[in-house]
Amino acid sequence: MCKILNLLGREVIDSRGFPTIEAEIILENGIISRSIVPSGASKGINEALELRDNDINRYLGKGVLNSVYNINNIIKKNIIGLNILDQEKIDNIMINLDGTLNKSRLGANSILAVSLSLAKAASKYLNIPLYTYISKISKINKFCLPIPMMNIINGGCHANNNIDIQEFMIYPLGASNFIDCIRMCSEVFHNLGIILKNNNKITLTGDEGGYAPNLSSNIQAIDLICESIEKSSYKLGKDIFIALDCASSELYDKKSKLYKLNSENKKFYFYEFTEYLNNLINNYPIISIEDPLDENDWKGYVYLTSVLGDKVQIVGDDLFVTNIKLLKKGIDSNIANCILIKPNQIGTLTETLNCIKFAKDNNYNYIISHRSGETEDTTIVDLCIGTNSYQIKTGSITRGERICKYNKLIRIEDKFKNIKFNKSFKRFSFLKDNKYILNLKN
């Protein structure tokens, strides 16, 4: 047993240059751990609340001094002296201290920063990697390295351009190991840059490190990606697939109930937009589509899943916001087949792990994900490894807050020399057989 000696909250900076919260825990034996919470741009309305100061005289209202106060004056006095190994107990103490459904009193960012620091401190105390600690409290006896869903073109809220779809990603299923995944994605990314330059398109990047050019349509973005894959000497639909994040809540007009693609000057009802996506799937090697409809369009999701559910991975992000209640509603309604996992959508590690377990128990895929406003904190890598996830979203092959996650995964692969990669992928098996399986030995 090791007790918490001190807890400190501080305001630090994320990848967009805005403040976010860091929590630092000090144990009685001198161990120190820190965690920083990321922030999203396109947020689901049902996400737990990210507490901001709204003081326009500081950071354009985006300061987090209220979160700092809550950690240093409310959370601190309720957890000092507790056993660092009591993760679930302490998470529940913070949830009860907040006392709201969406953590609006203390802020999900305040609570999560402390929750993740608890886990880091516990892993240091036990002298094991954080991913091993997470696997132990998750009661998982094996883990795998994930396949990266790498963003190479940004649009929507993640870029200052005219592309509607928020993320265009490549999915290197033909790789033999993780370092090959990174090499393949890097080659495609840089060849895409060459192609954009040759077409007089800008090669500035968006929030998540993907290129952010102005294009004539979303389809042109896919065509350029296909060209860059072929220029890199890889085969479409064999070596590399494509994944999309539509972020359709940003495309949806509530009054007209239409989905608007401004770059293509098109408007769709849900069944028409389903057909639009179906045509993309039929014409391109698209393996995964995230948030294809608005977060409240449950009727539309029932229809879309019935049409596309056996063709592609349908990922709920804004739809489920890492919330068991919403995931259960989706499962009961036969909606989607995968959930995106973002710890800051729910607010504690315990709730995040419970949501992952519920997804696994109901044969739902899950993807561990970053946010567009990221930091140098690499906890999502440990969450991915420790929960045996075989998919991760953590941005492009540029920007330090993204690269630190990829480099950590490379180091983990290098540590375990007996990694095996199963290449018996079937397009619509949703990756169940594509895993780097490792035995937990430490």
Describe this structure in words.
By secondary structure, the protein is an alpha/beta fold. 36% of the residues lie in helices and 18% in strands. It has helices at residues 65-79, 87-98, 108-126, 130-138, 178-198, 218-231, 270-283, 298-308, 324-332, 349-361, 379-386, 400-415, and strands spanning 4-13, 19-27, 32-36, 142-145, 147-148, 150-154, 167-171, 241-245, 252-253, 258-261, 266-268, 286-290, 313-316, 338-341, 365-369, 391-393, 420-421, 436-439. The chain has a 9-stranded mixed β-sheet with strand order 5-16-15-14-13-12-8-7-6, with helices on one face. A 3-stranded antiparallel β-sheet has the order 1-2-3. Strands 4-18-17 form a 3-stranded antiparallel β-sheet. The longest helix has 21 residues, at 178-198. The protein starts with a strand and ends with a strand. The relative contact order is 0.15.
Percent in helix: 25-40%
- Spans of at least 5 consecutive residues whose pLDDT stays below 50 are 422-442
β-strand number? 18
Percentage of residues in DSSP E strands:
15-25%
Rg over CA atoms: 21 Å
Number of H- or I-type helical stretches: 12
Structure class: alpha/beta
Shape: globular
Task: Tell me, rounded to a whole number, the average pLDDT.
Answer: 92
Q: How is the largest sheet built, in terms of strand order?
A: 5-16-15-14-13-12-8-7-6
Query: How far apart are the first and last residues' alpha carbons, in Å?
Result: 20 Å
The biggest beta sheet is recorded as:
9 strands, mixed
Please provide the ordered H/E string of secondary-structure elements: EEEHHHHEEEEHHEEEEHEHEHEHEHEHEE
